Amino acid sequence: RVLLFRNMVTKEKEKLGLVETSSASPHVTHITIRRSRMLEDGYEQLRQLSQNAMKGVIRVKFVNDLGVDEAGIDQDGVFKEFLEEIIKKVFDPALNLFKTTSGDERLYPSPTSYIHENYLQLFEFVGKMLGKAVYEGIVVDVPFASFFLSQLLGHHHSVFYSSVDELPSLDSEFYKNLTSIK
């Protein structure tokens, strides 16, 4: 499946002209990111990109706290570092976009994420960053809670689905207490 997907991505990149050839060079989006404001800069510069621009080459230039450009050779290495750091920041429970389950520390959207004025746009940005990682073949470790994944995959529409079955992935202690009462 992975090889099939990678082949499909390669063909799409060729069709869209996103692959370097002897006769053409792909469109490159350049972004400048301050290390101290990585999430804010990344969000501002990438959220408005079109779908094809997101699929294309994105070159990142980091700027340190003193405003000096950092040296870095971006053969997707700097972009990969940027993507990994952004994903780490958006899934940090301290940001309050996502929370972790008790016990196994799995991620799910925070019920209080609305405290961010632009929380829906932030979730969309998170989705774009995860999509870009998958599209580019960059492996990121994002341990989602199984009840959240079931919702994303639409399993809750199945005749055999019961939300109580997902409760242990949210709070195993609560599930244990509830079943002991039953």
TrEMBL record:
GO terms for biological process: protein polyubiquitination; ubiquitin-dependent protein catabolic process. Its EC number is 2.3.2.26. Keywords: Ligase, Transferase, Ubl conjugation pathway. It comes from the Eukaryota. GO terms for molecular function: ligase activity; ubiquitin protein ligase activity. The keyword Transferase applies. Coiled coil: none annotated. It catalyses: S-ubiquitinyl-[E2 ubiquitin-conjugating enzyme]-L-cysteine + [acceptor protein]-L-lysine = [E2 ubiquitin-conjugating enzyme]-L-cysteine + N(6)-ubiquitinyl-[acceptor protein]-L-lysine. Residues 50-182 form the HECT domain. It comes from Neodrepanis coruscans (wattled asity). The keyword Transferase applies. It is an enzyme of class 2 (transferase). This is HECT-type E3 ubiquitin transferase.
